[in-house]
Design brief:
single chain, alpha+beta, Yope Regulator, Chain: A, six-stranded antiparallel beta sheet, 9 helices, autophagy, Atg12 conjugating enzyme activity, ubl conjugation pathway, transport, transferase
Length: 213
């Protein structure tokens, strides 16, 4: 097996990234994550050759949480259930498993973040309001809902899997990245880390500090 060459590429046209630079950056981030995910909320990082897949386990702390219809029935039939049954029904959903997919937009020449979730208690697809409640930090909700500098959250078919997925539209990503232009040149991995700090953090995907050590 050939050794992976060291990353020496400097980004050619920030805030854009080429296909070769994107591949190099994704592979470098996968390699960096190999033995540094313990104790973080990232479960895995995988570069498939077409997309970078980041799996995250996220705790839910939402007092507004409402379980699916079978749990909503609790309020109407509580007299037929013991207190333990009610508590178990209402305490479901302690975490989400979030699958993030990073692809390259051929139109905007920047990465695009797609994501889908699995609830720990039920398999129903989350609606847009639940996505905002559970995925988006409150500090980012207004800008995303109003299609601010980050662009809004939309749903579309994933360009690789063709499955429905939420994504952050990349139309405003170049402008947002330009505002963060570093004073020194970036390599592809550094570009992806900067991009994740901007776009990923808007939906709670923060780069673990262990990866930056």
């Amino acid at each position: 097996m050939e050794a992976t060459p060291k990353q020496t590429t400097t980004l050619q046209a920030f805030p854009s990234i080429t296909e070769d630079e994107f591949r190099e950056g994704c592979k470098a981030l996968e390699d960096r994550s190999f033995d540094k995910l313990d104790g973080t909320d990232w479960l895995s990082v995988k570069w498939t050759g077409k997309e970078l897949i980041i799996k995250q386990r996220r705790a839910i702390h939402s007092p507004e949480y409402e379980a699916p219809e079978e749990c909503a029935e609790v309020d109407r039939v509580a007299e037929d259930l013991c207190a333990t049954d009610i508590l178990l029904c209402r305490s479901r959903s302690e975490h989400l498993i979030v699958d993030f997919s990073v692809t390259l937009s051929p139109v905007y020449c920047v990465p695009v973040l797609y994501f889908s979730c699995k609830h720990s208690s039920y398999s129903m697809r989350l609606n847009l309001d639940q996505m905002y409640d559970w995925m988006v930090p409150r500090t980012s909700q207004t800008s995303l809902r109003n299609t601010g500098v980050m662009g809004g959250i939309s749903m579309a078919h994933h360009p690789i899997s063709d499955q429905p997925a939420y994504f952050i539209h990349p139309c405003n990503t170049p402008e947002a990245l330009s505002a963060l232009r570093p004073t020194t040149s970036l390599n592809p991995e550094g570009y992806l880390i900067l991009w994740l700090g901007l776009i990923g953090s808007s939906v709670g995907l923060h780069v673990p500090s262990r990866l930056l050590a």
